[in-house]
Amino acid sequence: MESVVFIFSLIDCCALIFLSVYFIITLSDLECDYINARSCCSKLNKWVIPELIGHTVVTVLMLISLHWFIFLLNFPVATWNIYRYIMVPSGNMGVFDPTEIHNRGQLKSHMKEAMIKLGFHLLCFFMYLYSMILALIND
Amino acid sequence: MSAPAGLPPRPSAPPPLGAPAGVAQAGARPQHNGPVQHQMQFFTGYPQNYSAPSGHYAQVPSKAVPSQVDNQYGAGYYSTGYSVPAQSVLTPSVGSNLLNTQGSQQSYSKVPPHPVESAEGLGQGAISSTSYLRTNTPQSYSAFGSHYSTSVSSSVASQGFPLNSGHYAMPMVSSAAYPSLSYPSMATASPYGQVFTSQSLPAIGQFKEMNAFSGQSTVVSHSLQQVPMGYRSTSWSTSDVQSAQDSLSRNHTESLAKASNQTSTVGGVDSSHLVSQNVRFIKSGVGSSVSSAVTSSERTPVDHSAQPGPVPSVTKPSESLLQEGIQYDGYVNNQASSTPAPLSSSSAIDSSSTTSSASPVPNNYDALEGGGFPETRSITSSPAPAPSVPPTSKTSKPFGYGYPALQPGYQNSAPPTSAMQPTNPGHHSGFQQYSQQYPGMNQLSSSLGGLNLQHSQQPESLRPVNLIQDRNILPITPVPAPVPNLNSDLRKLNCSPDSFRCTLTNIPQTQTLLNKAKLPLGLLLHPFRDLTQLPVITSSTIVRCRSCRTYINPFVSFIDQRRWKCNLCYRVNDVPEEFMYNPLTRSYGEPHKRPEVQNSTVEFIASSDYMLRPPQPAVYLFVLDVSYNAVEAGYLTVLCQSLLENLDKLPGDSRTRIGFITFDSTVQFYNLQEGLSQPQMLIVSDIDDVFLPTPDSLLVNLHESKELIKDLLNALPNMFTNTRETHSALGPALQAAFKLMSPTGGRISVFQTQLPSLGAGLLHSREDPNQRSSTKGVQHLGPATDFYKKLALDCSGQQTAVDLFLLSSQYADLASLACMSKYSAGCIYYYPSFHHTHNSAQAEKLQKDLKRYLTRKIGFEAVMRIRCTKGLSIHTFHGNFFVRSTDLLSLANVNPDAGFAVQMSIEESLTDTSLVCFQTALLYTSSKGERRIRVHTLCLPVVSSLADVYAGADVQAVICLLANMAVDRSVSSSLSDSRDALVNAVVDSLSAYMSTVSNLQQSTLIAPNSLKLFPLYVLALLKQKAFRTGTSTRLDDRVYAMCQMKSQPLIHLMKMIHPNLYRIDRLTDEGAIHVNDRVVPQPPLQKLSAEKLTREGVFLMDCGSIFYIWIGKSCDNNFIKDVLGYPNYAAVPQKLTQLPELDTLSSERTRSFISWLRDSRPLNPVLQVIKDESPAKTDFFQHLIEDRTEAAFSYYEYLLQIQQQTCK
Questions:
Q1: How large is the greatest C-alpha to C-alpha distance in chain B, in angstroms?
Q2: Can you list the domains of chain B with their CATH numbers?
Q3: What is the pLDDT of residues B1133-1170, one digit of tens each?
Q4: pTM above 0.95, yes or no
Q5: Are B1180 and B1011 in contact (CB under 8 A)?
Q6: ipTM
Q7: Would an 8 Å CB–CB cutoff place A87 in contact with chain B?
Q8: Region entry Disordered: which residue ranges (chain B) (predicted)?
Q9: Sheet holding B522-525: strands in order across?
Q10: B884 vs A: CB within 8 A
Q11: B782 and A33 in contact by Cβ < 8 A?
């Protein structure tokens, strides 16, 4: 049973890693002026909710399967994702707003955030991998 | 030597101006001496030298006449005269060839006692030349000249020098440095060459002969060059003169300041003696001081080398060039020989040790450098290198490197400046001394008077002002924009502060320094301003930097004839063949004289490379609310009337198209296709999925269908009189408008009178009237939906702008609606409680605004890019536009009333440069279908000391930028946050300043003079509708004020924040100015406080968009009779919006003053006469921001609060 949990987490984590990479690539495209702010933001906003769901599911799964350490590790990041989504002002077009992304260094902070998430997901990936192998051996 | 190259372009511009300045200066110097009367000094130190310079002045007139045939080119001619000075200077030592010189010398020596005389002589010379304008140049020049002359006398060079007198050492130099000999023949080259030469020549004795030769050749070229100058002078003359004066005065003052510093530093020994010397320096100009230095000896060789540089200046064109060149040079040289600076200083020290008198000299130099006498700086540096390094190598260096080398130079300059800082007080006193001396000069011409003022300016900006004790800090005339502390030529070329302003006119070197100053760094732009004079350039190739795409501008440097160095990224670019030809003068080989390089504001006609599609016709679409509310308000009458009147004045060509859409709960289209007998209305009631009934015939050619359009406009106001439809389907109407406009782009003008209540984009009332005067946070400053934002972005993508006219009496959620204009680069007008009969003031305002709106210039499909020198970066933009990529603003439309602001940060230290530049390029399609690029370039100095940063603060720009930032803050965070941030901005910057000034008592509140209005303006901001709390403010009013802050240009915004108050019942002709044969009285500005109001008086308040005239209860009946046309106070009606045209003196004065105020701005302000007891007087009194209100502090209380916080 435990191995199933970790296999799922591993797959989910892979998806999140790809998503982070996608965010980074798109944002750096914007930085280099390869795409315009409008298309960049609409691309990224599409993936904000999948990311949020993907990560929340893993976190909840860890809670249910009583892996406290991994849950506590994931919890702050999941909270941040939800908080960020909820706090979008009503007039904005999503977490990424084309009219503001070039102001007040928002682009940079988005970039930084995506980088940190990538690192975090990589860490989680190896943890899940280890736990999965351990679980498979135990089975 | 990139620097020298750069110089040439500017010089041409400066020369016309320069001449007058020179004259003024010459006059001024003697005078200075006069007051001080340090004759002793002259005799003791350098009688010879001293006389020499004077001789040179005297010569100028005499020489000039013979040499120059054309009066027109007097300026240029004059310059030649100047160059002559160099010769003359030499003469004394050599045994002078020039008769004139001697005479001139004599006069000069006399000068000290009889300042007036000398001035006259100079004046005459100047007159003959015609061009009074030269001022700047002469100053610097003269300084150099003297400097050189001195050196000559002392050094071996004397022999060689006469030859040099040709000054044309430069050609030589160039040849030395440059294998290619082409230079001598090329006039252009000469300026550069000269500069270099100065360094190299002295070192190399052998060259002298050569120089002489080259000098001759150059001379020829000079005469040729003059022609362009003449051209220049015509266009520039008036404005330039002023600036020139400014620069002069500045230099002067600075030198003074420095001098004083020196004194302090020198300390002990011959303190009196030294002091006198310093003073003298100041007065006489740099030149004299230099001469003294020369006497000191060791330096001479060095100076010598320097001398050549000035000499070249002999050419008129080159003069101006020289100055610039020198300046640049200074930097360049510094760069090239970073060591030199230190060296020079050390040498200076040595000399000082040898001779007591000498000691002042070195100091002087340093001081000069710091002071922003770039030229001097360069000189100093150059001498040093000469001894240490073989001349040739030096010359080559400057050529090749230009910028990198700059650093050292910069550093050199830095130390002096920093020195200034601590000595502030002393320096100040020096200044005072100076000013005292000045009065003697009053007899001088008015131009000199101007100088006088200017002189005081520089130290002024740092003068500590005790805000709590000094109650009258508001100047009696409107606050001028500070002038950047640049050398005179650069200053003349610099962009007008009306179009381009920076919050700090001295850019701090590093982000750390900027953080210390606690002032925001940013630009305020008004790029599409209506200009009376704008050089338009048609050229198949537009010269731009190949790496950063910067347009060529006056601040680039020409490395040689074929290459120029970008002033933003420092890349070296080729000058294209076509650019070598100057169409204005029809001459070849003078790229630095092209208009692009002579004007910091130019407009290019762009080729098809700058188009994504062929220029589209001008398309205007009007989207009109015709619901019950709208019909009741009656705006349609006003609009249709205005449109009918201005139909022919709409900007556009024969292709111009126009269309109309009306909406209530349905959307109505109007088929105006040519051939119809009358307009055809097409109603689309499916507002959930709007479609265009006949896509082709809704936007019609204005000229072909004019009759139908007129019919429609005549019919529209009455078409809906009986409507009972109260709903408003704004969203669907906008979607339809977008569909209609998307093929071509253009302008959509939306008239809305209520909250949209149907279809997409419907809004709900969010305002709670009970919270209007809440002191807690204000909610709902941001949009409620992203519908309008998305629509705006769609429109922006299709090059369509949406302009919003909101005429509602109820809450209409402007915060949401405004988004349609904000992000599509439109503009927003708001007329609260509009009614065409009940509120005639608003109706009149709408009418006037519409007139301006319909007829003003417009640019379509515009993009704007703001570039700045490497190291600076823009991180936030304010204004109405969409930021498409990091530095590209997409403006579907651009109008002359739009202002923009950007915030910047310093990402890399600017230590290796002494100047930074900013360039905005606005690419747009004119209404005639031409693709044009308007380019503004601003150049500012870099400083390394905190005091200099404060000295250069532009308080109005700072306030406007802060207002923009505060608006952002209140939307993204909360209103109270932004209010706190505003107060903290004052507290932080003032306490940072006070901590730099150590000797102050902590109990007071001190501000530098440049920032003395800062607290007042911030208080005004806090009491502005946008940010006030506690006073009942409708949400829409507040949001509208915020929108204005984001999109108004600085001049309008300042009037809005801090209105001007004048007393107008006693207008006199004293100090009046003449405009178009009319006498316009200039009453002094009054403090915005009720203490200034008296019941006997009548006051005019200029709030930018509205004029209030407040009439006191016991006002003089004569005024009411003569100006208002009523027998007494009681007879004056409550609502009066116009002044009658009465044939009395006071009426005429009042009206001419008001119309003068009106003419100075594009928007026609409405006039409102307010009697003391009328209810409207609250409108007037709310603007008296220095007074206490129930919800806000008075100015004094607020100062005490700030003081409390700074002491923490």
A1: 101
A2: 462-481+954-1058+1185-1207 (1.20.120.730), 482-611+861-953 (2.60.40.1670), 619-761+782-855 (3.40.50.410), 1060-1183 (3.40.20.10)
A3: 877 777 888 888 888 888 888 888 887 776 778 888 88
A4: no
A5: no
A6: 0.89
A7: no
A8: 1-35, 97-122, 242-270, 292-318, 332-430
A9: B500-502, B522-525, B900-906, B872-878
A10: yes
A11: no
